[in-house]
Design goal:
Elements (H helix, E strand, L loop, with lengths): L4 E2 L2 E10 L2 E8 L4 E7 L2 H4 L2 H15 L9 E7 L2 E7 L3 E3 H5 L6 H20 L2 E2 L8 E4 L4 E3 L6 E2 L33 H4 L6 H17 L9 H10 L5 H4 L5 H10 L11 H17 L4 H4 L2 E2 L2 E2 L6 E4 L3 E2 L7 H16 L5 E2 L2 H5 L8 H8 L3 E10 L2 E10 L4 E11 L3 H15 L6 H8 L6 H14 L4 H17 L4 H17 L4 H18 L3 H13 L3 H14 L6 H11 L3 H15 L6 H11 L2 H21 L4 H13 L3 H14 L4 H13 L3 H14 L4 H6 L10 H6 L5
Parallel strand pairs: 14-16, 14-17, 15-17
Antiparallel strand pairs: 1-2, 2-3, 3-4, 4-6, 5-6, 7-9, 8-11, 9-10, 12-13, 17-18, 18-19
Length: 733
Amino acid sequence: MIGQTLSHYRVTAKLGSGGMGVVYEAEDTSLGRRVALKFLPPEMARDGATLERFQREARAASALNHPGICTVYAIDQHEGQHFIAMELLEGETLAERVSRGAVPAAQLLEIGIQISDALESAHAKGIVHRDIKPANIFVNSRGQAKILDFGLAKIDQGRGSDPSDATAVRPDELTKAGTTLGTISYMSPEQARAQLTDSRTDIFSLGTVLYQMATGVPPFAGDSSAVIFDAILNREPQPASEANPTLPSELGRILGKALEKDRNLRYQSANDLKTDLMRLKRDLDSGGRRLHDSGETRGGVSVKPAEKSIAVLYFENLSGIKEDEYFRDGVTEDIITELSKIKGLKIFSRATVLSYRDKPVTPAQIAQQQNASYVLMGSLRRAGSRLRINTQLVDTATDFPLWSERYDREMKDVFEVQDEIARKIAEALRVTLSPQEEKALASKPTEDLQAYDLYLRGKSFARRLTRQDLEFALQMFENAVSLDPNFALAHAAISNACAQYHYHFERDQKWIERALAASKRASALRQDLPEVKVAAAWILHAESRYDDAISRVREAIMQKPDCEGAYYLLLRTLFAAGRYQEVADLADAATDAAGNDYNTYVPILNSYGALGKAEAARNARQRRVQVLEPHLKQIPEDARARLLLAIDYAQLGQLDDALREANLAMALRPNEATILYNLACVFCELKRKSDALDALQRAWNAGFKDADWARRDPDLSLLHDDPEFERMYPAGS
């Protein structure tokens, strides 16, 4: 369909599909507006009853003119293809929203009032929807609820419709008693019994929707249709206030009345339900519980009303290709960096939001756990040279998007998209950018998109700190600077990789020389970047110039606390200098800033061991396990992470798990110096001294020659008095 012109509609994109048709975005070339076209599948169009139901949706909806009902512009066909042209909506369905959990009371009331008002208008014209459910309610980017899909709508001949009216639908087999239609979980008892329906049917279904919004679960659920029917007909749902104790008690009463099984005891009109919802909203507002304005509580957490704090969640990778994860991560982290340039915003660090990556989490949960005022969330898909980014800024107090946008661009435009997202967010939050901020947002890390892609790919491998991964990362960084010699971040990454390669694997001066050359080049291009300062500090560390390295990396942390690898280097250098208490004092700040960078825990655990702080070490190990286990689900080939997890398991008494992880790591990287060194630590924990010495000897042969570290490492305490250990790592070497 895409690219075709049907009548005066040019189809531009596919939006989705369902049981009653496929929906496309199109341009109305006559009126110059964007519309949605809903097509009936050809096989369904051949069925007379289905076609009539499809057309009924258009006629029923077009008879209505209300902001809470999706506007139908026309019903048409082209070469036998039947379609409806309707209002194009941007936002999400309530089904998508409630899939993330319960909706805050203030937002629930606002949506409930809007839907009730729309139903009141439809019922006044004698139209009963009969399929009110979360999937048929859309909330646009301005927070306006819209009822969709009048495909099951029936005209109540006795309530305001004229049987001769062309928009009226005459009763037939689809509307007779004895026919059950609708979605089971949201049916009224009269629908479940296949009895005649009226406006009170919609009220019951709306009650089920409001209950699910309030509690996060539908009121009538089960593993089969029979169980659900039985619940609708014979069982009362759990009181909403028990399912969600934070709800106002009056809301529980309203839901109970809407869900009355006897329709004569139910709300008799949508207007009655709307009135009660409006009264409750007024009472809550006057009682000072308007969360966003009062600043008293949000999700049970005290907040400041004026703070514009944003948690940027990692975008969802819609390509389904694991190899694209590095690009998704890089784009998200760069958006965090861009927003951090705006002084009027408080942006949560990469490390803070990293723990939420690829986990189902709601803005309300982010508000409760992090005290965030707003959440930026979205998705990313790239295919060849094309890039699609969908993003929205959600107010955590109302769970409604303040701003949303979809970008369909060429890959080369990725920096402009990041820049525009930052500017649009500032505009949505009424933050005026200074000339300096305008200039900072306009700057790009590189003019070459391929260089940027290589840099992001290299970063994802450099974090693993094994010889093979560092070699691959170094290749990516060098390819990046060959494409763009002025790419300062890539030069800094080369410096980092070379210094760490020298430290961990090959004590050859050539690596320091390469690191120094790359660091000088990076400094000449952008000496202000914290990543460039960290690169210079790694060289100082590799040369055992610990005080200078500590001073330089502290500068980077002052400038950007979550600068990748900065805290790890600082703590590692402090440990190598024997300043254990300083490491312990910085442990909390470091782990908060580093997020799931498991490397940061290495000097912390070693310092706790050197200080004899057994309980603190055990707590830190348990925290690292919580970081390593989900990390290995994401990147199962990370051998270093597996060895560190093996050490933790051994320390925590999980000996079988420790041996399993150690064996897996050795199968992945049998000749890696850092892997062999950590294997020696595992054997020490298991009291297998000879195996530990053998693994340590192999680590020494493979390039791990750091005597300062090995002699201070409490994980190797079993070997510290052994002559063979002294021979490999003599004092003062």
